[in-house]
Write a structure and sequence with these properties.
mainly alpha; two-stranded antiparallel ribbon; 14 helices; 56% helix
């Protein structure tokens, strides 16, 4: 009994094949998409499909196919969704939603339409593809109306919404207007952080507040702020804020008395003044640091100048006094870098000897200074001048200087300092000479005492 249905089915398929040749290409492509179905169900529907294929496409009844709960008509007019045929997208209403079926039915009865090639079949894949194509067409149509709104707020479209501006947008606009108005009152972007009230004006205003608590700090034509004080605690800034708010409300809000708006403008004013104050403090800090660096450089330069002057004075003294001539070569080797540093205090200079110089060398230089004072004082008195040379006090202060003079006699260096250095470092960088210098401090001390005695005899 089994072969009978099989033979009948095969015969019917043979009969169906020539009929399928007359079917349009659209229907043939649709049947290829449905070959993945169950062959048993396909065999049961072949007879009905063959009957439907004989009928023209225009006379076939409209059927509904369901795909995952989404119903799409079997045949849809293409004209209502042909986006490419509408390059300008006129104000003509685009059918959406349930209107698609209504317009499709109306247009089908009125005239002949071309039909979407992907919707002619009832297969699930074709229906899904048709739904995606329709969605793309509708999305593209609406996108043409959205784009001008994004790039040009003045564009008006039947589909464009015109909602009220958000509070954040309004706040940003108000902040921008507050910034520009405040900048204009303070003299422009270059002067707004410098055009502030002077100290004398601030003092006068504080005195006026004691007698008249309602005194106004400034007018709108002489508007200024006090960047040295905070925006909220400084009396001048509090008064200037009220002057600004009154002018701002009259200029931009027709003199509105809205308390919330005035409070918001006041907060924006405080924020702007705080920003200007931070910039002002940062600029002052940079200027102060620059001034300190300049002062330090000036002090170092002055100190070096005093070292040079001291070395020249000692060198002249060694060439002038016969008892000091044998120390002239040592002074030349020392140079200005080998002189002592000093710190000025109350018109006198406290000597700070470097740690690398030996006590004998320090004593020699001290005697040079004493002889120089005696000779200079005597010369000033003979010339009738009251000016006396700089007084330099030897306090025994030692500085740990990293700089030193190389190539001096070995006894010109401090023994502890040399022993604390590595032998290679001493040989390469210090390079002390093997010979020793004859300081003869005892003889110079007696010479200085004799000069002091002779000077006292002259004064008597």
């Amino acid at each position: 009994m089994d072969p009978e249905p099989s033979s009948s089915t095969s015969r019917k398929r043979k009969i169906d094949r020539p009929r399928a040749k007359n079917v349009s290409r659209q229907s043939r492509g649709s049947k290829k998409g449905g070959k993945g179905k169950n062959r048993a169900s396909q065999a049961s529907t072949d007879s009905s499909a063959a009957d439907e294929e004989d009928e023209p496409l225009e006379k076939r009844p409209r059927t509904q196919a369901s795909h995952k709960g989404f119903e799409v008509p079997d045949l849809m007019p293409l004209d209502d969704f042909d986006v490419s045929s509408r390059p300008g997208f006129s104000s003509e209403r685009i059918p959406v939603g349930n209107d698609i079926t209504a317009e499709a039915a109306t247009s089908q009865t009125a005239s002949k339409h071309s039909y979407h090639p992907y919707v002619a079949s009832t297969s699930a894949g074709a229906l899904a593809e048709a739904a995606r194509e329709v969605g793309k067409a509708i999305s593209g149509a609406f996108q043409q109306y959205r784009e001008p709104i994004t790039h040009d707020a003045s564009f008006e479209s039947p589909l464009a919404l015109n909602p009220a501006e958000s509070s954040s947008v309004q706040t940003k606009k108000e902040q921008q207007k507050v910034l520009l108005r405040l900048r204009d009152l303070l003299g422009g972007a270059q002067k707004e952080a410098t055009n502030q009230v002077s100290v004398s004006e601030l003092r006068r205003y504080v005195q006026n507040l004691r007698t008249s608590p309602q005194a106004v700090a400034c007018g709108i034509t002489t508007f200024r702020v006090n960047l040295a004080g905070t925006p909220t605690n400084c009396p001048w800034n509090r008064s200037a804020a009220q002057v600004f708010i009154t002018d701002y409300m009259e200029r931009y809000h027709s003199g509105s008395e809205d308390a919330l708006l005035r409070k918001s403008i006041l907060s924006m004013f405080h924020q702007r003044i705080a920003r200007l104050r931070r910039e002002w403090l940062e600029r002052n800090k940079q200027e102060e640091n620059q001034r300190l660096r300049l002062a330090a450089a000036t002090a170092e330069s002055q100190k070096m100048c005093r070292k040079k002057a001291l070395h020249e004075r000692r060198q002249k003294l060694a060439n002038r006094v016969p008892e000091l001539n044998r120390h002239s070569q040592l002074l030349t080797a020392l140079g200005p870098e080998g002189m002592s540093s000093d710190e000025e205090a109350d018109g006198t200079f406290e000597i700070q000897s470097p740690n690398w110089r030996s006590p004998e060398l320090n004593q020699l230089l001290k005697q040079f200074d004493e002889i120089d004072i005696i000779i200079s004082t005597r010369q000033f008195e003979q010339d009738g001048c009251t000016l006396i040379p700089d007084v330099r006090h030897w306090r025994g202060s030692i500085t740990a200087s990293k700089k030193f003079v190389s190539g001096l006699p070995r006894n010109a260096y401090e023994a502890k300092w040399l022993n604390g250095l590595q032998e290679n470092y001493v040989r390469v960088f210090v390079r002390p000479r093997a010979d020793e210098h004859q300081f003869d401090n005892a003889g110079l001390e007696s010479f200085v005492k004799g000069m002091t005695f002779r000077a006292s005899m002259v004064n008597d």
